[in-house]
Amino acid sequence: MEVITGFTVCLAALVLGLLATFSKRTKWIRVGRSPGPFGLNTKAAKKDFEQHGRALLREGYRKHKDKNFVVQSANKAVLIIAPKFLQEIRMLPETKLSHAQILMDYWVSEHIGGDLAMEGALHIDAVRGPLTRSLKSQVPIMQREYLRTSGFLFSQVPKDTNQINVHNFCYATVASITSTIFIGEDLAHGGGWDKIVMEYFPVAWGIRTVLKPWPRALRPIVKPFLLRDNQLEAILQKAESFLEEPIRRRREPDNQDVDILKFLSDYDSSPRKIALQIVGIITGALNTSTHALMQAIYHLCIHPEYIADIRAEASEALASEGGQWTYEVVKKLHLLDSFLKESLRLFAPEGMDITRMATSSITLSDGTHIPRGTSIAVAGEAMALDPAFYRDPETFDGRRFLKADGKPLSPEREFHGIEPGNAMWGAGRLTCPGRHYASALSKLIIANLVLKYDISFPEGQTEGPAGTPDDGNLVPDMAQAIVLTERA
Ligand code: HEM
């Protein structure tokens, strides 16, 4: 009898608990297709978001201003948090909100080495600390590397069309500059390092695509069957043996290297872990920076009236530093800085920013209960188009972030800064640590390009390429070429 009573009490508690959770969940406003009862329509809802996610996020943001709402993304249900709650969540610790958990889940990280790379978060420290602090000494090296890579690319441009593929140009310059800054000039150019960097992302993405639809527990079982030709291990072994000796040298007491490899080698990590950290950060830096740069070049072709002024600013800044590329030159490029920020605001590669997983239950100030395990995000692109944050938000204004005297409106309104309404670098505790480097890199590449060339879309093209929507994100057009006209 006692057992039955105990059982009944437990059952009742369970049902009440479920009802409580359900009643809290049902308060969430839904935008887009619902997965339906028992998740029967999940597949259709995911597909819908994959194709129309960006529009759905904008719609939800406009309709439910100041409220949280839930969408079924192509990956999972995500609670979109209204901007007014950002202040409450931005600094919450890992024990409450985790970005790493989102990345691990999205990337099936344990199958592509992400779990080892992210353990201890040294990869973030390396970028936030040594990379940002050393920008002053790095800019001349970045310029040398730019000239080397762009010189080769420009020499390949066909004389009859003078056209260059924008993705190839941006990818190659960002990859060579970033590899050089991370592992040093000699290593970045020897022994096939560029191939390792180039191969990792498509192979990792391929693994992710194959394994993601499977439940986590089943992935190790299905993996050997689905990924018979798993090339990842070969790439990682190459990266590891490539870096083994340089890591050993950097661990010698009198070593003078100052690159990111040196910083990571100073910790007692295995060469495999360091290789994964380096390849992982370069891959992340490459995708984000390449896409932002491509879009900035497209915006320059759409608004060519800015080119002469950006060029004049760069000439003047260079002249003030004796014609040498220094960090001081980079810091003087205010118009280009504002132009890049405006380009990223209007392009916003990711529809959902500040993606986090609740590692414990949270209750927001309006009473919204966020159960442990919930994915949350902010509708970054929609927020960047909100007139509450930006005047005439749909209009491209390359001088939006400048005062009348051409100086930045404020430090937070510089390209690397984060003003209210801006989620492109994330927010709070986990803000992109690479944004100072990304800003310097982007300015150096664009200023150099327009100093040497006039740029335009091929004859007859009057509009910028649309890009491809993908799960709330926008991938810029990879096939677009521009015409380079060398300046006299
Ligand atoms: C225009 C270029 C870039 C954009 C738009 C960008 C954007 C972002 C965003 C939105 C986040 C997530 C922040 C959050 O959720 O609060 C992030 C994280 C990060 N970014 Fe960037 N980023 C860029 C370039 C770079 C570069 C060049 C580097 C390295 C040199 C870098 C390194 C990182 C790292 C290490 C993280 C942390 C990832 C983690 O949590 O494990 N980023 N970035």
**C-alpha-based Rg, rounded:** 24 Å
Give the strand content: 5-15%
Shape: globular
What is the typical, i.e. mean, pLDDT? 92
Structural class: alpha+beta
The end-to-end span amounts to 97 Å
Ligands and ions found = protoporphyrin IX containing FE
Number of strands: 13
The spatial strand order of the largest sheet comes to 1-2-3-9-6-4
Helix count from the secondary structure assignment: 19
Give the low-pLDDT segments: 17-24
Family: Belongs to the cytochrome P450 family.
Keywords: Heme, Iron, Metal-binding, Monooxygenase, Oxidoreductase
Cofactor: heme
InterPro entries: Cyt_P450, Cyt_P450_E_grp-IV, Cyt_P450_sf
Describe the structure using short key phrases.
six-stranded mixed sheet, binds protoporphyrin IX containing FE, alpha+beta, globular, about 500 residues, three-stranded antiparallel sheet
Topology:
Layout: H1 2-26, E1 29-30, H2 42-63, E2 69-72, E3 77-80, H3 86-89, E4 97-98, H4 100-107, H5 114-118, H6 122-133, H7 135-155, E5 163-165, H8 166-183, H9 185-188, H10 193-211, H11 219-226, H12 232-250, H13 260-265, H14 271-302, H15 307-320, H16 327-331, H17 334-347, E6 353-358, E7 362-363, E8 369-370, E9 375-378, H18 380-384, H19 435-452, E10 453-456, E11 468-470, E12 473-475, E13 481-486
Parallel strand pairs: 1-2, 3-9
Antiparallel strand pairs: 2-3, 4-6, 5-13, 6-9, 7-8, 10-13, 11-12
The protein binds protoporphyrin IX containing FE (HEM).
Residues 99-100, 103, 118, 123-124, 127, 131, 281, 284-285, 288-289, 292, 353-354, 424-427, 430-434, 437-438 line the site of protoporphyrin IX containing FE.
Family: Belongs to the cytochrome P450 family.
Keywords: Heme, Iron, Metal-binding, Monooxygenase, Oxidoreductase
Binding site for heme: 432
